[in-house]
């Protein structure tokens, strides 16, 4: 070890981990590292010298542990935050690049925890985009197959949402998942990574207005068989309701989810969202707005205000559809009045968007301020209709396969079920619905 480190405790730490790394049993090393957190935090400014003294291949667990301490410890006061956390991100990236795929797969879960701290710090520095290539690189090394879900998929989605740069996540989200984690016998796959991935993936698809895919992702998060209901599942249900109304005009029944569970847990905590359903189906914009005003603070707290606004727009589109069945042409001002829009400019924006998307067929005469509605082409003569049908069928088959795969993984993995049921992560099926929820 370098002589410039005049810290006997760290000298001893390096010697001990080197000796333990040569042991065939990693449990003793893991146990030792868990007891050294206080020492490592105390000498945070000296940890770079510790890293230099360790061989990353022979001491990969220790190196990752030290990086985790650096990522979670309070930064030294004499170093600017951006400089400090960017340097740690670079060290984590170097770690990912240096060690082999097999070495990294054994450390998948602790690596996810370290990278989560890295992302939080970069987010606080308003630099979350810097984490995206590091996380993507790690996912590529962890994956043995492109359809394999890793512990870092959800973290990449989070980084993309934090940086408002959603496209980097699409290459992963568009790939259907059939394998969880790794085949390493010592590595279990925590369900929080699965649920977080499908919840955050649903959020990304909803933000990109790919509502069909968003619904599928929220459904998967909701219909996975787990011994308890988590906060992620509750948040998925709230967005599932809103996105379903926007895209389908109704909320489909959830497959495999017990009706008793819905009644006892989901409905009481999601009433603000369930009340939107009848208000929307009535078709009265004023009634819908009254419901939205009533629960305004709830939607704001849940970060669902944007989706609620889309519900209002969906109702306007629904009412425009009704008018196309009644009138061949009409003035845009009359249309705006009938569907309760504030002015003809907004009415014209709705009409243009619906014509461009193929929701309605018509032609706007701006000079006269009128809209002429046309009959749609014969449904099955349009190749885009056939493509849409095939896409929907493929989507549902994929959804069914993914849910079945997750259910089977839980049923045949006793340690997995034991791990989930031991965590206080929400509401057990046998508990009272008054319990508080933890993400």
From TrEMBL:
Cellular compartment(s): Cytoplasm; Nucleus
Region feature (Disordered): 419-439
Pfam families xrefs: COP9_hel_rpt (PF22788), PCI (PF01399)
SUPFAM superfamilies, alphabetized: TPR-like, Winged helix' DNA-binding domain
Polar residues composition-biased segments: 429-439
All copies of domain PCI, residue ranges: 210-378
Keywords assigned: Cytoplasm, Nucleus, Signalosome
Assigned GO CC terms: COP9 signalosome; cytoplasm
GO biological process, one term: ubiquitin-dependent protein catabolic process
Family annotation (InterPro entries): COP9_N, CSN3, PCI_dom, TPR-like_helical_dom_sf, WH-like_DNA-bd_sf, WH_DNA-bd_sf
Family, similarity comment: Belongs to the CSN3 family.
Protein name: COP9 signalosome complex subunit 3
Lineage: Eukaryota, Metazoa, Ecdysozoa, Arthropoda, Hexapoda
